[in-house]
């Protein structure tokens, strides 16, 4: 079961993919935001086909207290539109602190700030996806949006 992980950003979309067993998440690529979300979603749909994934997990930027603020509401609206294009189930997963975690990992690897900016989004997507994969194997509830 191969799954795509998505970290939505205003300028870039980080993408990660799991291995075929659905156990390990790996950073895949960064999509620079296009002229519209539809263009971005078409690119994600292309990756769904190319990578032969059966589902997508999108990071949900909840507030630190677990409530859904403006960023989470915007992400949910985008996920709703994305589901009409990608052709596979789309799940959301709490992404609190994933970019912080991704940046910490990259800093530990002694990456310079400019190099980190180029890859942090896809590493954050891998952190989101890995967290979702781990939650599934532990029997935690997963929320489907489509």
Q: Assembly type of the shown chains?
A: single chain
Counting structural domains, the number is 1
Number of strands: 6
Biggest β-sheet, characterized?
6 strands, mixed
Which class of secondary structure composition applies to the elements? alpha/beta
CATH superfamily: YqgF/RNase H-like domain
Name of the CATH class: Alpha Beta
> According to CATH, what is the topology?
Nucleotidyltransferase, domain 5
For the terminal residues, how far apart are their CA atoms?
A: 18 Å
Helix percent band: 40-55%
Q: What would you say the CATH architecture is?
A: 2-Layer Sandwich
Strand content: 15-25%
Note poorly predicted spans.
none
* Mean pLDDT level: 88
Domain YqgF/RNase H-like: 1-102
InterPro entries: RNaseH-like_sf, YqgF, YqgF/RNaseH-like_dom, YqgF/RNaseH-like_dom_sf
GO biological process, one term: rRNA 5'-end processing
GO molecular function: hydrolase activity; nuclease activity
């Amino acid at each position: 079961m191969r799954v795509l992980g998505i970290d939505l950003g205003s300028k870039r979309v980080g993408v990660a993919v799991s291995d075929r067993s659905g156990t390990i998440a790996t950073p895949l690529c960064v999509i620079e935001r296009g002229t519209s979300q539809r263009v971005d979603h078409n690119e994600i749909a292309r990756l769904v086909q190319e990578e032969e994934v059966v589902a997508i997990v999108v990071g949900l930027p909840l507030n630190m207290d677990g409530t859904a603020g403006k960023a989470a509401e915007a992400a949910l609206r985008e996920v709703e539109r994305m589901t009409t294009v990608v052709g596979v189930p789309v799940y959301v997963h709490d992404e609190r602190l994933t970019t912080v975690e991704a940046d910490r990992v990259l800093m530990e690897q002694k990456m310079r700030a400019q190099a980190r900016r180029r890859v942090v989004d896809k590493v954050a997507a891998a952190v989101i996806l890995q967290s979702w994969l781990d939650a599934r194997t532990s029997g935690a509830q997963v929320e489907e949006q489509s």
